[in-house]
Design brief:
It contains four helices and two strands, in the order ααββαα. The chain has about 130 residues and is mainly alpha-helical. A hairpin with a 2-residue loop joins strand 1 and strand 2.
């Protein structure tokens, strides 16, 4: 069970690349520094981040402000430190979110991007780096 600590301020960090690791660390911190469920619900999820039932390009994509995602950095960067394979909550499977994001980007690059961009089966991907 998740104990509700008394330090229930609203964490104003949003976005998957910065927010995801910050919230994970804040949720598993020692009890005196841990955030509560209401902070998670009002901060992380309440920041226009959860869109139950949303699909994009045929893939379930229920997290993130943008239906087509952002550059892959946004979902892949946090996974340098955290394995989303077993992570899920009442809002989403984080593995599904991380796995579907590149598929959506690939679909965009191959089927929707302007031809002048030069994407093809071997050259595609959107990244902030």
């Amino acid at each position: 069970a998740w104990d509700e600590p008394s330090n229930d301020f609203v964490l104003k960090v949003v976005g998957t690349n910065e927010g995801f690791p910050a919230y994970i660390l804040a949720m598993v911190a020692p009890a005196e520094n841990r955030i509560g469920v209401s902070n998670y619900n009002n901060g992380w999820i309440g920041a226009r981040f959860s869109y139950p039932g949303r699909t994009t390009c045929g893939y379930r994509f229920e997290l993130g402000r943008y239906a087509k995602g952002q550059p892959l950095f946004a979902s892949q960067h946090p996974c340098m430190w955290f394995d989303p394979g077993q992570m899920s909550d009442n809002y989403a499977s984080y593995w599904e979110f991380v796995a579907n994001h590149p598929m959506i980007d690939r679909h965009y690059c191959l089927h929707e991007a302007p031809a002048g961009y030069g994407y093809n089966e071997s050259l595609w991907g959107l990244s902030a780096s």
